[in-house]
Amino acid sequence: MPEITYVAADGTARTVEVPLGTSVMRGAVFNDIDGIVAQCGGNAQCATCHVYVDEATLDRLEPAQPNEDDMLDFTACPRRPNSRLSCQLKVTGALDGLIVHLPERQN
Length: 107
Description:
Elements: E1 3-7, E2 13-17, H1 24-30, E3 50-53, H2 66-71, E4 83-85, E5 98-101
Parallel strand pairs: 1-5
Antiparallel strand pairs: 1-2, 3-4, 3-5
């Protein structure tokens, strides 16, 4: 299983295995990682699963779809060029080693 590292706002990092086909958001929820609220359950409708993808692993992602891109304008913390909604990041073998940084708050 691919490993995803979630880095909290305080710098604490936790690496967990996430099943293929699962979203990065669900990987956080299933592993009790604080900092991902996921109010809408993964439908790209609330922006409470906002993450900053580490620059070292950003090139592994597919581009954001228009609905994700639109929702990123509604995040609680500032949008950055490496902002993504973790519910829209499906785990593939190419994402093994992905690092995401959690914002200070989600709502």
